[in-house]
Structure formats: structure tokens, C-alpha cells
Amino acid sequence: MKKWLEANFQALQALGAILTIVAAVVALVGVKMQIDASARQQREQSARDIYREYLNLSISKPEFANPDYCAIEGTANEGAYEDYVEYLLYTSEQVLAAMPDWEPTLSARLTPHKELLCSEADWSEETPAVQGMIRRFKVKQCKGFVSGCG
């Protein structure tokens, strides 16, 4: 055995170096995967947190969560209501970035805001994901839309 080890010392040393490199690469890949998983979990948790904040705002401002847009339009509350809808869209942006499968839930939240969403044509400041959600909403909800406000 000793003679074999002496005869194959250089080959064994090279094999040891190769195994060390392979182990290091595997460790780096593992660390990268852990970092990515942790970042994804953090983004998802942040998205859930902002959605929870949106729900709390909806509870504290039911007049905005389920609005009578015609009664709000032209009043001092109109700006606050528009900011509420903007917060809904921001929430949607954050949630969709982390969890795209939440779009049906978020899209359903748009329905009470049909008057505002259907009357506004320019949503170019929103992210592509939110623009797409609004576009799909408008195709379904805004056909033949005529504002009910006088």
C-alpha cells in the first residue's frame, strides 16, 4: 500500500485539489441558492406586509375602499381618494413583483374603483405589470363605460 501511495502521490494530490475545487464550487452554489431563497422570502414578506397595510387603510377608510365616486368627485376628498387608489396600485406593484399569481386578488380590488379607472386613460407611470392588470381590468369592466356622474 505504501508503495502504491508513493507511486501515485502526484495523481492523488491532483485528485485532492480537484475535489477541493469541486467542493468549493458546490459550496458557492449552495450559498448563492440560500441567498436567493432568503431574498425571495423577504420580498414576499414585504409584499404581504404592504398588502396588510392596504387592508388596514381600507378598514379605516371604508368610504374610499367602496366609494361613491360621484359623491367624492369635485370635493376636498377627491385628492385623498385618488391617493388611496394610487396606494392600491403601488401595493399591486409590490405584490405582483414578488408574487405574480396574486393578480386575480388584486384585480378584484380594482372593481369598486371602476369610475376612476375607466375614466382615466393614462396609466403610463405604473409598472408594466400594473399597466397590464389595469388594461385587462378595463377590457372587462369598461366596455361601453359612461360615467354615472352628472
How would you briefly describe this protein structure?
The chain has 150 residues and is mainly α. Helix content is 77%, strand content 0%.
Task: Write up what this structure looks like.
The protein is mostly helical. It has a domain at 44-143. The chain contains 8 helices and no strands. It has helices at 2-7, 9-60, 62-65, 69-72, 77-98, 103-110, 114-119, 128-141. The longest helix has 52 residues, at 9-60. It is rod-shaped. The mean pLDDT is 89.
Largest sheet: number of strands, sense, barrel closure: none
Average pLDDT, all residues: 89
Element string (H = helix, E = strand): HHHHHHHH
Strand elements, count: 0
What is the radius of gyration?
A: 28 Å
* Stretches with pLDDT under 50, minimum 5 residues: none
Count helical runs: 8
C-alpha geometry: rod-shaped
Proportion of residues in β-strands: under 5%
Q: What fraction, in percent, of the residue positions are helical? A: over 70%
**Secondary-structure-derived class:** mainly alpha
Q: Distance between the terminal alpha carbons, to the nearest Å? A: 99 Å
